[in-house]
Design a protein that fits this description.
The structure holds 2 protein chains of 2 kinds. Helices cover 0% and strands 54% of the residues of chain A. In chain A, a hairpin with a 7-residue loop joins strand 9 and strand 10. Classes of the chains: A mainly beta, B mainly beta. At the A-B interface, strand 4, strand 5 and strand 10 of A face strand 4, strand 5, strand 6, strand 9 and strand 10 of B.
């Protein structure tokens, strides 16, 4: 079956870089996504990467994709307390129509 | 603000009851998705509609049903509720519902079954 795996927790200090990792299973996924969920809010699309790219940079965010290992990572530079949230990795799935399949989320805690 | 509206924000009910959750997609979006978020299962895809027709089914229980109306709003009906149905239910929308489109999520409906 399909499964997207993420580590559950990450704790960093303000100003450090955060790296959130994800492994996915569907090699046919064309896009892979990172969503952010703040307390009491819905999911917000942070960034996405096309599967023929290795890297995408968007301000403080860098996405790295290793298609051979089906490994995706999100790096947040100069992490701020406002970055504390749950981060979800997601892939599109042929079995679920065009819906996204999400990992269980990584809770990022940023201390000052 | 994603433009996706969900009501109510919170719902408290008892086991055995039936509830209806409502979602209005972003203006111009034709496809609606329903997800259930719980601590143990994470975010589970339930069902997708496109322009009033069911397009894909995920892990949706038979006690649950949904529909999308001509004005494109959608409702998720949950019946014979059990304690384990307590969760955050999200609606998301996209323009055409094709693969690899971005999904925009509402703020969710928190359902508590007592």
């Amino acid at each position: 079956g399909e499964d997207v795996e993420q580590s559950l927790f990450l704790s960093v200090r303000e100003g450090d870089s955060s790296v959130i990792n994800c492994t996915y299973t569907d090699s046919s996924s064309t896009y892979l996504y990172w969503y952010k969920q703040e307390p009491g809010a819905g999911l917000q699309l942070l960034t996405y990467i096309f599967s023929n790219m290795d890297m995408k940079q968007d301000q403080r965010l860098t996405v790295l994709l290793n298609k051979k290992d089906k490994h995706l990572s999100l790096r947040i530079a100069d992490t701020q307390t406002g970055d504390s949230a749950i981060y979800f990795c997601a892939e599109s799935s042929n079995q679920a129509g065009t819906a996204l399949i999400f990992g269980k989320g990584t809770t990022l805690s940023v201390s000052s | 603000d994603s433009g996706v509206t969900q009501t109510p924000k919170h719902l408290i009910t008892a086991t055995g009851q039936r509830v209806t959750l409502r979602c209005s997609p972003r203006s111009g979006d034709l496809s609606v998705y329903w997800y259930q978020q719980s601590l143990d299962q994470g975010l589970q895809f339930l069902i997708q509609y496109y322009n009033g027709e069911e397009r894909a089914k995920g892990n949706i229980l038979e006690r649950f049903s949904a529909q999308q109306f001509p004005d494109l709003h959608s409702e998720l009906n949950l019946s014979s509720l059990e304690l384990g149905d307590s969760a955050l239910y999200f609606c998301a929308s996209s323009v055409t519902g094709r693969a690899n489109e971005k999904l925009f999520f509402g703020s969710g409906t928190q359902l508590s079954v007592l």
